[in-house]
Structures are given as structure tokens and as C-alpha cells.
Amino acid sequence: MKLKTLFITIFIVGVYSCSQKDQIDCSNRVIEVKHLETEYGCTNVNINLSDAYMIIRNASDYSQYVIANCQTNIDFNTYDLVIGKKGLPNGLDTIKYKLVENCETCNQNLKITFDLSDTTEAPNVTYNALIPKLEENQVFNVEIIVNQP
């Protein structure tokens, strides 16, 4: 009986210490994103949206929704394409992307930062990011930040 109690105690302590170690070692992961312009030389990338985004998961949807001057051969077994539009109050200087995966939930957040210029034009900008293929129930969020000049 004492031996059985000892093994149960060792098992419980082992499981608890592993879960504590996982929590201590857990850190969110920044994932590199690629873009149609840099990967495939696309120009004039467009989609018929207004202040919204969509996730393209296959070649058929890409052909139906995305307009771009290029030949792409996106591996949709490896990547999903996040593409959207944002209306801006001033001209665009730069777009920055940061994709972060939460270490505890595996949910992903794509932060898109628009740095504006002093020009008075108000463009409707298309943005896109090739991200690692999302799992069936994985939560994905896009966060838009607009920095005024």
C-alpha cells in the first residue's frame, strides 16, 4: 500500500511540475509573414472589400476574389492568404506586419500598422500576408493600427 501511495505521489508531483514548467517556458511566438509582392512580384494587388479582410484558403477562392498582376503558385497546403482593405485619412508611408501566436492557445493575431504621410490623398489600401496554414478551430484576428504623421 505504501508503494502504491509513493507512485501516485510521484506521478502527481511529476505532472504538476511539468505543467508548471510549461507555463514558465511558455512565450508567444513571432511568425514571419510573406507577401504577394515580395514572394511573387505581384503588383496592383486588389480585392473587392471595404474596411474588411478575408482569409483565402485555396486556389479556387484566390482566383475568384483576388486581383493581381502576377503569376502565383501559392502552396495552400502550407499557407493561407489574409487579404483586406483599409481606407486611410492621409497618404500611406509604410505598412508593417507582425504575426504573433499565443503560446497557450495557439491563436494568432496579425497586427498591421499603417504609418501615414503628410499628403492629403486618402487611399483605400490593400494589404496581404501569407501566413502558416491555420488549423480548423484556430482563432485568427487582425488588428489595424493607423499612425498619423
Summary keywords:
single chain; 149 residues; alpha+beta; 4-stranded mixed beta sheet; 3-stranded antiparallel beta sheet; 3 helices; 24% helix; 42% strand; globular; disordered N terminus
What is the helix fraction of residues, given as a range? 10-25%
Structural class of the secondary elements? Answer: alpha+beta
Morphology: globular
CA gyration radius, whole angstroms: 22 Å
Widest β-sheet, arrangement of strands: 1-6-7-9
Q: What average pLDDT do the residues reach?
A: 87
Q: Which regions are unreliable across 5 or more consecutive residues at pLDDT < 50?
A: 2-22
Query: Ends: how far apart?
Result: 73 Å
**Continuous helix count:** 3
Q: Please report which band the strand proportion falls in: under 5%, 5-15%, 15-25%, 25-35%, 35-45% or over 45%.
A: 35-45%
Question: What composes the largest sheet?
Answer: 4 strands, mixed
Number of strands: 9
What is the H-and-E element order? HEHEEHEEEEEE
Describe this structure in words.
- The chain has 149 residues and is of the alpha+beta class.
- Helices cover 24% and strands 42% of the residues.
- It has helices at 2-25, 36-40, 59-65; strands at 29-31, 43-47, 52-56, 66-69, 79-87, 92-101, 108-116, 124-132, 140-147.
- The strands form three sheets. It has a four-stranded mixed β-sheet with strand order 1-6-7-9, with no helix packed on it.
- β6 (92-101) and β7 (108-116) form a beta hairpin.
- The longest helix is centred in the N-terminal third of the chain and has 24 residues, at 2-25.
- The chain is globular, with a radius of gyration of 22 Å.
- Residues 2-22 have low confidence and may be disordered.
